[in-house]
Amino acid sequence: MNPFIQLGIRHDIVNAISELGFENPTPIQEQSIPVLLTGSNDFVGLAQTGTGKTAAFGLPLLELLDFEENHPQALVLCPTRELCLQITNDIKNYSKKMDNVHVVAVYGGASIMDQLRQIKRGVQIVVATPGRMLDIINRKAIDFSRVKFVVLDEADEMLNMGFQEDIDNILSTTPNEKKTWLFSATMPAEVRRIAKKYMDNPFELTMGEKNTGNANIEHEYYIVRARDKYAAFKRIVDFNPDIFGIVFCRTKIETQDIAEALIKDGYNADSLHGDLSQQQRDKVMKRYRERNLQLLIATDVAARGIDVNDVTHVINYSLPDEVENYTHRSGRTARAGKTGVSISIVNAKELGKIRQIERTIGKKFVKAEIPTGFDVCEKQLFSIVHKVHNVTVNEEQIEQYLPRILDEFKDFSKEDFIKRFASIEFNRFLDYYQNAPDLNASVEEGRIRERDDRGPRSASSGPSAYTRLFINLGSVDEFNRGDLLGYICNTSKISGRSVGKIDVKGVYSFFEVPNEDVEKVNAGFAGAEYKGRPVRIEVSGEGTSDRRESSGGGYRGGGERREGGYRGGERREGGGGYRGGDRRDGGNNRGGERREGGGGFRDFSGKPREDRPERKRRF
Ligand code: AMP
After folding, report:
1. pLDDT in tens, 468-526
2. Which residues span the domain enclosing 299?
3. 367 and 385, same structural domain?
4. I want to staple 540 with a disulfide (CB 3.0 to 4.6 A). Which of 30, 225, 427, 468 is the partner?
5. Cα–ligand 1 centroid distance for 517 (angstroms)
6. Predicted TM-score of the model (pTM)
7. Is the same domain home to 301 and 428?
8. Where are the alpha helices (DSSP H) in 199-250?
9. H/E run at residue 582
10. CATH assignment at residue 319
11. Which atom of ligand 1 is nearest to the CA of 47?
12. Where in the numbering of this chain does the DEAD-box RNA helicase Q domain appear (predicted)?
């Protein structure tokens, strides 16, 4: 007998899901369907995406509702438009052999009139994001007085997005006797609280994850406008001076174009695709393996099976057409027990694809912000400082030149000397990144919004609404950005939505919160300990607004770099085309970031250098 029949699902539904390829129930379906089918329990399911939870609640709903009646009987609330559409579509698929089942998707960013029309025609299942749902309730366009079941899907995410109050308001329009089923990937205190508030002695279920992939890979995505993609990509690379990465493109042409553009901009990159001869491919791979190449730009096919250890980043310059390819791509990093980051640079329309990948791999992506020009400069500066600190000196070889070098610097103070050394590369980045625009595009319920009209959401978007805080925990404490966000929110009881940029360093990190939340964070962390160590929070010396002011009104883009900035050992000859050379003239830079007047050598003040009084020379 079909195992779904054994669980109590009727034939016409089982036939429909068989066509979808559901042969056996997933663990969460196996355990929750019999409980939910009784229709008499509140329910809490701790489950990741990709575990089959939509069917776990969708199939019982189809069993329990009366489809001869045309009024709302079930309400499914979820955080995003993509998930809303996905759930609606799934339930429609499960019920395609049933009569008179009406499911409506209610979400922002689409015509409300269409949705109102569908509701008016009669629906039994409403799948909704909270904002638009409340709008429709406020218009008195829906009657929830006979709702029997409410599903809160991805409850943690809804709370993170600040929907608590909307959910309260929506649920207050539903009858007290309804049953509430809550699904959440994590169970922070806030979710516990709503479980307690809305439920009566719920049945609780915790499920493992399906196909979590490599647990050491952190998945991140950046949302940018399509025209900013190349510039954003370069900025991410510049922000990771020690990157040793594979960049995936969708086509050979794109692979070639990106590699050529990077090479032209002075990056240590090369391409790997099917139009190269075997010999050329071997040569590229040899350089990459030996780390004489920092960025390998590749197609899926050409990169299949690359087994280079220590790849720090996989960058999906374009998302793959097939979701499975994403797993193959990201599996090029975090090999042999190492950790790695898989980055996707997407535009708002591709967000649905990210969600689809999340479902397939059963892991959440972290939404990351394209670093500001300031962040890049800071990162590069300290990278140089560390390199100088750690460099191995060839005493024997340098010995003979030492007297001349010392003579050249004899009038320099130690501080002056250090500043000059650090400035060799730093100046170049300052120059490139003066007035660099914010490249982050953001999405809210399906609409793309420019940062500027979002209000002061984060440091990079608003003048001085955010405060940058220091915390004495970092990557050595095994925090990544997502973990740290969760930890901060749990401890200080602020919404994840209000936390701005998070910058995880080694033994410490920085994060930004709205000025009005600083007190709350301090109070929440008072006396807090992490693994027996007191946790310290301090206002970072560098306030957000100060940073911007000191930069003379922001940064400029650019981003071309010289080979000189990379780890030693790469060779300029050998099939790679031009690299290196001093590109300060900015004359042949490409990418969307370049601004007016290309070429003037500017410093932090934003004034062309030639216009400024010459500094007194000390030698
Ligand atoms: P979900 O967690 O509901 O987003 O489901 C994740 C993916 O697993 C979706 O693509 C579902 O279509 C699929 N799926 C759910 N249940 C089953 C099942 N019993 N057998 C095969 N695939 C399933």
Report:
1. 899 989 877 888 888 888 899 889 988 877 788 888 877 788 888 888 889 999 999 99
2. 217-371
3. no
4. 468
5. 40
6. 0.44
7. no
8. 229-239
9. none
10. 3.40.50.300
11. 2
12. 2-30
